[in-house]
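Board notes (copied after class):
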Amino acid sequence: MIAIITNNKKKENNMVEVTQEDFLEYKRVQQSGMYNMFDPQARQMTNLSKEQWVKIMQEYKKLNEAWGNDDE
């Protein structure tokens, strides 16, 4: 389960919060084509926590449907 309402990046009740801004930051790195998204260096190009990065990867389809530009 993900919370998408707040910009607070703290974990609460084992939830990882991911905002639209966070997802778009992930997409920016993805669309650059410079990194395999499993490469730790890809995450280092963002301000995302490891937990947020993993949650985006796990919930990518749902997040992309909500916030992505059907550019795939």
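Comment from the instructor: The chain is about 50% helix and 5% strand. The longest strand covers residues 2-3.
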